[in-house]
Amino acid sequence: MGLGAYYDNYILVLIFMLLGVALPVVSLTFGRFVRPKNPYAEKITTYESGIQPEGDAQVRYHVAYYIVALEFIIFDVETVFLIPWAVTLDQLGWVGLNLMLIFIAILALGLAYSWKKKVLEWN
Amino acid sequence: MTGQMIFFIIFALIAITGAVLIIALKRISHRVVSMAFSFMAVAALYFLLGAEFIGIIQIMVYVGAITILFVFGMMMTDHRNFSFGPDPRKWQQALSFVGVATLLGLMLYGISTLDMHESTQPFVGSVEAIGLELYGHYFIAFLGSAFLLTSALIGAIVIARKEAD
Amino acid sequence: MDYLLMFLYAVAVLMVLLGGVTFAILAERKVIGAMQLRPGPNRHGPWGVFQTIADVLKLLLKEDVIPANADKKIFVLAPVLAFAPAFSVMAVLVYSSTVGGADINIGVIYFLGVSSITMLGVLMGGWSSNNKYALFGSIRGVAQMVSYELPLILSIIGVIIMVGSLNLTDIVNYQANMGMWFIVPQFLGFAVYMISSIAELNRSPFDLPEAESELVAGFFTEYSGFRFAMFMLAEYTYAIAIAGLATTLFLGGWLGPAFLPEIVWFMLKVVAVMFIWFWLTATLPRARVDQLMNFGWKVLIPVALLNIVLTSIYKVWMG
């Protein structure tokens, strides 16, 4: 495939992205002319079911979420490795299949470890 | 000036601006957002080079996963009540400036003397080529990366469990 | 001239999409209403067809409240970060053998990679509001989306192994040559895809980030007026896009008997997938957080990996 067709396709992608940004920006800018603007202290306080907000919302959060994000990155990279393998599997044949089975087995070991350590448990 | 060059300059400027804002902005949440924009601009540069697979992986892993990890890390720490201490002294600033300038000069020198001949035919990197190289010639490195990922996972769990208990 | 044509195509897709979202919202309310033996919206126009349009006009005329404690810059940026990627993924969808968007070699992965940016919008919206409900909603939501994105990608890899290409047109053509839709040989993958796409979209029964009985409105609690509308629009745009990808990958895209045009077949299949989601919304109670996470990591990911192993053995065996 020539570079010209390649760039043309990505220009279409770029047009979609710019339109996706433009729609919220334009509609909110023009909405300014039709919507009222009357903020006062009570209206712009943080909503907390109608009572006075208690303390700050941006508190320290539990470490469990951080571990989930870490596991996500590890397995995300694994899936990234799986994609070129899946595309070329018919050329790689049995060697490629065994290679990936070993790879999946090693990573399943990591999943089993986190399973056993109860990282995936939520309470 | 070709269209390619114009897009390159736009994306390069976004990438550099984002990178500078990561250290210049005051609040950590703003820094994380500018980091995401910097990553996206780098991905766009990959697309411009014809490396579409690497570009989309840059978005998937860096914007979609590593930025999320940073935000969770930000939420986990007590970053609001933490200050970075007084400004560094004058001579420290001067020293770091000299160091950075030297590094930049070396890199620019290296790039300018690099012998990069233009390829005769335009080339679009394909996923098939990456797959065949990776699982054909470099399969030992590939299996090594599996061990690296697993040990990273186990290490992270061990450290985080110690913190939680 | 070519670029003008591209621009017109993008605008046309946007217009059709806005109409589609309008009627998807109405259809959801009507379908759930009918299943629960109530009429649903029926005041504006015949069968309430103008209900959503009235809602949008109302939202346009509402004041745009930004809380004093909010992080204003990110608060403003978050709806854009949620909508732009959800719309950008439509660029690669192929609607028929003649009508289609960008014909890039990495179609499927482009879709998944760009849609993962949506998470950043959710997280930033919840964090910048400086509201407890919003923060809980966004953290729950992102933990859930992160856990279910893996089975979503893994379920697609079975299809990629069979086809040997990431291009959406190639995938549909392969199904045409095979004479069978991938829902049959890849049923395991289809099941995993459907379940994890519901969690990705924060739809019931996995709508914990927006659990209105406990979290008010979840991560967009503090959003009002048209910014709120943007979040809703992003959600439904993403839903239509995911249904479109399901159609392309598992339901044969535009393939179908010739008495209807190809593009109509595509739309009908998208509608069918979305109907299944509405049905589940009307039927199932909400899952708990621990059930949700356990199910994702301990059931869906192993099942998706099993599907990959079985498919690859089959593929190599058959040559």
TrEMBL record, chain C:
<dbReference type="InterPro" id="IPR001694">
    <property type="entry name" value="NADH_UbQ_OxRdtase_su1/FPO"/>
</dbReference>
<keyword id="KW-0472">Membrane</keyword>
<feature type="transmembrane region" description="Helical">
    <location>
        <begin position="295"/>
        <end position="317"/>
    </location>
</feature>
<comment type="subunit">
    <text>NDH-1 is composed of 14 different subunits. Subunits NuoA, H, J, K, L, M, N constitute the membrane sector of the complex.</text>
</comment>
<dbReference type="InterPro" id="IPR018086">
    <property type="entry name" value="NADH_UbQ_OxRdtase_su1_CS"/>
</dbReference>
<dbReference type="GO" id="GO:0048038">
    <property type="term" value="F:quinone binding"/>
</dbReference>
<feature type="transmembrane region" description="Helical">
    <location>
        <begin position="236"/>
        <end position="257"/>
    </location>
</feature>
<keyword id="KW-0874">Quinone</keyword>
<keyword id="KW-0830">Ubiquinone</keyword>
<feature type="transmembrane region" description="Helical">
    <location>
        <begin position="148"/>
        <end position="166"/>
    </location>
</feature>
<dbReference type="GO" id="GO:0016655">
    <property type="term" value="F:oxidoreductase activity, acting on NAD(P)H, quinone or similar compound as acceptor"/>
</dbReference>
<comment type="similarity">
    <text>Belongs to the complex I subunit 1 family.</text>
</comment>
<dbReference type="Pfam" id="PF00146">
    <property type="entry name" value="NADHdh"/>
</dbReference>
<keyword id="KW-0812">Transmembrane</keyword>
<keyword id="KW-0520">NAD</keyword>
<dbReference type="GO" id="GO:0005886">
    <property type="term" value="C:plasma membrane"/>
</dbReference>
<dbReference type="GO" id="GO:0009060">
    <property type="term" value="P:aerobic respiration"/>
</dbReference>
<feature type="transmembrane region" description="Helical">
    <location>
        <begin position="6"/>
        <end position="27"/>
    </location>
</feature>
<feature type="transmembrane region" description="Helical">
    <location>
        <begin position="74"/>
        <end position="95"/>
    </location>
</feature>
<feature type="transmembrane region" description="Helical">
    <location>
        <begin position="178"/>
        <end position="196"/>
    </location>
</feature>
<feature type="transmembrane region" description="Helical">
    <location>
        <begin position="107"/>
        <end position="127"/>
    </location>
</feature>
<protein>
    <recommendedName>
        <fullName>NADH-quinone oxidoreductase subunit H</fullName>
        <ecNumber>7.1.1.-</ecNumber>
    </recommendedName>
</protein>
<dbReference type="GO" id="GO:0003954">
    <property type="term" value="F:NADH dehydrogenase activity"/>
</dbReference>
<comment type="function">
    <text>NDH-1 shuttles electrons from NADH, via FMN and iron-sulfur (Fe-S) centers, to quinones in the respiratory chain. The immediate electron acceptor for the enzyme in this species is believed to be ubiquinone. Couples the redox reaction to proton translocation (for every two electrons transferred, four hydrogen ions are translocated across the cytoplasmic membrane), and thus conserves the redox energy in a proton gradient. This subunit may bind ubiquinone.</text>
</comment>
<feature type="transmembrane region" description="Helical">
    <location>
        <begin position="263"/>
        <end position="283"/>
    </location>
</feature>
<keyword id="KW-1003">Cell membrane</keyword>
<keyword id="KW-1278">Translocase</keyword>
<keyword id="KW-1133">Transmembrane helix</keyword>
